[in-house]
Structure formats: C-alpha cells, structure tokens
C-alpha cells in the first residue's frame, strides 16, 4: 500500500467525512481531543460533526484534564477513569520518559520519577478541594513537596513545582481542568476515588490500540511518541490481533479489525480547516502527512502552530485567523500549491463554519 491510501484510511477513521451528529460518538475521543489553544477542540469537532456549537465546553459528557504527555485533552467523562489508569507509568523508565523536557531536573531531585510523580499527586489531591487557579495550586503544592521537585521562576520571582510534574500528577490526584476558564483553573473530579499507583498494562495497551486505529498503520516508535514513553515500553504495550502492513516498503501494524477499511477506504474528497493540534495532525509519522520537510516546518512550529488545510486527501496549506472584536473573523489561508476553484469555495465555506461555532457573525477570507 502507499501513503495516499493510509491518509484516506485516517481521514475516514477519524470521522472527517462528517457523518456523525453526536460528538460523543466520534472515534477521536477514544484518545481524547487536545485543547492547547482557545477553541481548538471546538474547531476540531466542527470539522467532524454535522452539528456542533460553543456549548460543547459545558457538556457534562466531556471533561478536560491534563492527560497524554501532560497536554490538556477533552475526554468522554465515562472514559476518564480508564485514561487515568493508562497514565500510570509501567516502571521507572516509563515514569522518567514521561517527564520529557524536565527529565534532568527530576533526575537531580534526589528521588525516583515514580515517587516524585505520586508525591506531587498526593499534594495536589490534598490542596484541590474546590476550583482553584493553577497559580494558587502551584503555590500551595510547592510548600508540600520536596525542594527538588520545584524551581525558581525568574518571571514570577517565586518558586514553583516543576511544570511537567504538576501536569502529569494532577490526573492521579483526582484533579481536572475547568473548561473554557481563563486563567487555567483546576477542580476536583466528581466522585474521585482513591489514588491508584499500581500499573495497569491492559489500560496502557488500550491507548496504543486506539492510536493504531486512528493513526495507523504505525510502528511502536510512533505510538511511543504519542504516549510520551520509550519505543521499548511501547512494544511492551503492543496489542494482540494486529495485521502487518507494508507501506512504501515499511512494515507497519494495524488492528486486524480495521484492515477492511484500510483496504477500501472512502475517497478522501473532503475539504476541512483543521485547527492546531487537531487529532489528524497528531500522527507521529509527520513525513507521511507532509512529505516535504520545508512544508512540515510550516505546519508544525516550535511556537504558535497554524491550522492546516486538508483538501482531497492532502495537507494543502495552513491558515490563521484574527478576530475583530466578536463581529468578524479574518482568515488568511496560505496554500502550498495551486488549489482548484471548487476546493477554494469549499474552504471558504469551512471558514464560515469555523467562524459560526466560534461566535463570530461575519467572516473574511484572504488567500496567499
């Protein structure tokens, strides 16, 4: 098989043909929908649901929490307990890998990453009994944890708990994020039970299975990138009942149950404006999504990702917006290659859809 067939499969598997009216039934919630920037999750759902509006953030069927890689994700409320179990590190190597950019600080803390994670989780659980701003939680928790798990912040002129430790620990402390609230506010998860510290390999494997369903066919290294662990540990989480696929000479895996869709996916004849951190853009094999390295740098920035224009099975460009109060939303769409007129009209219709769900009455589209 080739990459075009893989992309057609992912477009279908992730619901981008927009045939579902109920957001809770979208397959992308099997992993969660990242919400790193204002309205990104809402726009991701607008690309997939026939009917969605801004009330999504207040829907009790969904909950926002720091989960995969410490990033904020919306999950189905009923799935959150399983997600929490999946986030318990399998061993110390796993715990340290999940610390990502703050591994060196955790290594210097004088305790294991596992102990540091759950020490912070217990402190967060004790502190957050009602909604509190992130800053207030950080201040209170920092006083309760070993000094090695905190750092001096020059900007604030204060000592804070390590950011990644706080993000990874919060869910284990039974704490979520308040959706649609600024500044970031933490609150206790309704009905939170006792804190679990024992690894749950089956729950971890379920996350990898979901990754393969939505972003496959793939290798352990790509699943590891999404989870935030090592390739060897992703292999330990590797599910059974997989089909081996050859894609452009690479041996990849896909759940056997999804093989029929890969073999005969619907035509990827859709045009969508995907927000930054959209599930489709979360595949760790970026060269499959965007083969050209220069274009990859346009889609995935170090700071300030744009949205991506999906047209007829390919990432065809990027887009950004600028709001004029709450009246008009201005779009600038930059295409990589000439775009046919029907695709341009479809993109402009998608811009109107995005503006509507974000609460803007008017829209203006500029092409570059």
UniProtKB/TrEMBL annotation:
GO molecular function list: DNA binding
Source domain of life: Bacteria
InterPro entries in the cross-refs: AlkZ-like (IPR009351)
Any Pfam family the entry gives: AlkZ-like
Keywords: DNA-binding
PANTHER family: LMO0824 PROTEIN (PTHR38479), WINGED HELIX DNA-BINDING DOMAIN-CONTAINING PROTEIN (PTHR38479:SF2)
Protein name as catalogued: Winged helix DNA-binding domain-containing protein
UniProt source species: Amycolatopsis acididurans
